[in-house]
Batch of 2 targets.
Target 1
Amino acid sequence: MSDFLMPSLGADMDEATLVEWDVKPGDRIKKGDVIAVVETAKGAIEVEVFEEGVVEELYVPVDTVVPVGQPIARLSGVETGAPEAAPPKPAPTVPEQPKPRAAKPEPPVKAPPTPSPEPEQIWERILATPLARKRARDTGTPLEQVRGSGPRGAILAGDLASRPDVNRPARERPSRTGFDPGEMRKAIAAAMARSKREIPHYYLAESIDMKTATDWLSDYNATRPPEQRLLMSVLVFRAVALAAREFPEMNGFHRDGYFEPSDAVHPGIAINLRGIGLITPALLNADQGSLADLMARLQDLTRRARRGGLRSSEMTNATLTITALGERGVESVYGVIYPPQVAILGFGKVTPKPWAVGDALAVRPVMQATLAADHRVSDGHRGGLFLARIAELLQHPDQLDRTPSVQPRQKETTP
Amino acid sequence: MNRNELRTALIEAIVDIAPDLSPEEVSDDASLRDDYDLDSMDSFNLAAEIHKSLGVNIPEADFAKLQTLGELVTYLEPRLT
């Protein structure tokens, strides 16, 4: 039996509001199940569990602000889970229950189940974000009359924004994504200030000839319908992920004075949230699978980053960060490392440049790659080799396409 | 589907990708990338949506040249079956 704690949701998050429970006492859970949804400045995030067991008790009612590390539920392990202690509370009826009931026999219950009032209250709550609740109170709008556009129909502040409110400065357009730009900016500021305070960054840049990769991509896409095409960023992310396996000092976490390299490669991808801010969820195991598979996963990650539905593992597991500001027109981007990571790669736009080929001059599509890395862990020499390796991998795009069976890993394979 | 219906369908697809835009403000000659901030993933999604809902498979070489709503309408209109 163990307490399940509110997970960390990144270096810049110290609390979150629990807005939904997806399990109830008695439910059997397995690794990877989503048990709750929390709301943060980065939108709604699904909280996963990483063990098997049975939910014994939910400690925290919906709509509570919970600090990271506080117990939110009690789980019992399956192996040790003889129900000799308190039998699981009979579950109150829930209209929509996606999870199967616990497979093990129910402990004998003498009296008819009497659901305790507290959980009952939880299930009947209307899903709404704290800001939406506040706005509903401010404008006198009953939440029952509002149609929610958030995850699982949760009411977001934007759903109430059509009501005029004289006390608020008029905003150009209501946010429909559940993000809080002010809070998000504060969170980014906190993480980046900590990074600049604690991490001795060094910076390197390298120009990469992208002719082979550009030609390969054009050929690949020419014969395929739009939904099966690839973006150049997929090739770049794959090249980074494969290179990161060879440079463990770029891929991992610096915590409490020590560096722990990571076996898995989970690049955090900087995703722009259209005028709201920036989020860097992890593209899990980007070194594995075909390029088509990686493209599908990137598309899914981008969609969930913008519309809600990122998972807690994606918020915390990133082992290095990639920012590709190229299509916004910049030629190079020098990143700030996201603690506790130790490296961030930046990619600028692919642009035609004069390029020496042998002793002649040619015009080639060229991309600037930059690396900001942590001097506590690595030196510029290794950083330069890391960039050179990425450039080299991009000269052989066909070798970036890995079949899913290449180098299977035991840890955290994306389902 | 006439030109106006095509235009409306395209605006719907664009606004779905960029929910902070309102349908009225999408104009024919603004650059989808520079004025409405559609990135390469957004463009990928737009091409896929056009293929799915309008049945037109725009080759990538052509799609790269279509920068505005007006250009998309002009390109797609004669290709609708």
Note: Residues 181-198 of chain A form the longest helix (18 residues).
Target 2
Amino acid sequence: MTSEIPETVPVETGNLIGKVEEFRDGGYRLVQINCSKIGDVYEINYSFDKDYRFRNLRITVTADTEIPSISGMYWGAFIYENEMHDLFGIRVRGMNIDFKGHLFTTAVKFPFSIAPSTLTKDEKP
Amino acid sequence: MAFFEMTKTAIKTLLSTPATILYPAQPAKKTPLSRGHVTIDESRCISCGTCQRKCPSQAIVISKEAKTWQIDRLRCVVCNSCVDTCPVKCLFMDTQYSSPVIARSVELIAITYVKPAKPEKKDEASA
Amino acid sequence: MTKQIIVPFGPQHPVLPEPIHLDLVLEDERVVDVIPSIGYIHRGFEKLVEKREYTEYVYIAERTCGICSFIHGATYCQGIEQIMNIDVPERAQYLRVIWSEYSRLHSHLLWLGLFADSFGFENLFMNAWRIRERILDVMEQTTGGRVIQGSCKIGGVRRDIANEKLDEMRRDLDTTEREIRDLTTVFLQDNSIKHRLRNVGRLSKEDAYHLGASGPTARGSGVAIDLRKTGYGAYGKLNFQLVTDSCGDCYGRCAVRAQELFTSIDLIRQAIQKIPDGPIDIKVSGAPNGEFFTRAEQPRGELVHYLKGNGTKFLVRSRIRTPTLTNIPPLVRMLQGCELADVPVIVLSIDPCISCTER
């Protein structure tokens, strides 16, 4: 059994950058960014770790919200943000490396999103 | 700084027998627990469909009407889940891997289980 | 300014065991920038969780990776057990540690072999894999599968190892350790290998930490992160030393993995010594309702499983963050400024497992 119980703090999308900055200044490392579809909203978890202390920031967004990129503070975040865009169709503003939907090439566009496009690769114009 | 560190191992390997087996000529390694392929005792299967529901790769299809048990060997991931959950223990794990095929096909086995005439006995006893 | 050219590298390349594509921006022979792309083998594992019951998803979670399969299964089970408040019997926890460490041995030996192959030491490659075969034999004797063990289930393990077998395993470990010692001496001492790996693909300690490196990639740069130290499972009851290396180059990462083999052997010995008798599983009923982030140390680094259930037999979300995904940004940093001929060695030094990265 893991001894650690992860703590999760919900934050507003607008305050995200500020909160992430606090984590960066506190010497936390970025563990992962994780998006999940809950009904018709998306829950995005930003996980940080310092000395095995695991902490989460959670924002809840709708499909048409544009979220700010944290790749300015954590350079390596681009991989998670592109993944989030390619699988869930979430628009991320200001990524340092933007693959424009080509990190994961899937037959169905945004397969994990609320309304995945049903166009297959062959049907695409 | 060290040179020729590998020489000892290389000479040892050169003088010893091969570590590999000549596979088709010699049989492959097997252990009593090896998961090879699933077999069924068709005379005991009660067509309950547990194996079909519990199969993570949906390789098993059971038909109650036609009394058949069908498995797609190429879909089967040999996870042993059906063997574990079978209520009458009529499924077994054979240690031999299923033989290679050149075309996709399913294996169809007719279930020969006949339900014992239990209720009638009861009737007789109560009568 | 020299003319820049772009050389595509991968996804199919003789030295790459897995399909990753890199666009290398070159100035003469020097790599100035790298753009990595993955996404050739996305299988949609995380979507499958909505279609399979949580008890069967163990088998699917385990098949995320073909090398560290057991740890994926065990981590998933650990997460579900946390959500459902299940206390796993102690014997099962020890057995999980034993199999996890065998997985680590097999994965590290596989990697050492592939790494030797990447710098052209064919003989060493074959030798590493010969020792790995001994480990796989033990796996098959105890679980029934060579690489996909399938011996973990929610609430415990599916198979017990008899105490006589455990003793035999411990005796076998002595021979294996001797062979591994011969092998690692070559990796750590041989002059030509040192010459090939020293100062190739440097990653500073700060970069490793801030770019999120994990596992041997981080420890090879001197960042002491090892999730086993959090004491999940039975790890809390076992003693082991963290292996780190301060050089931060390909040699450092190789040295960390080579020495971790002995840590794993030691952990297995301790676990076999301390394993209590008792039941190996408990009955599980109900369905998970809640969420949990569970973390474990894989041979490649830190593994995160995020599980969310809603009280039905089907989970809402399972997210698998594999160590290679988080090791890609550090890889990009390592490759910037290296020579073109060093690219294959550097890519292999993070032990890329792209198939499990894409799930």
Note: Chains A and B do not touch (no CB pair under 8 Å).
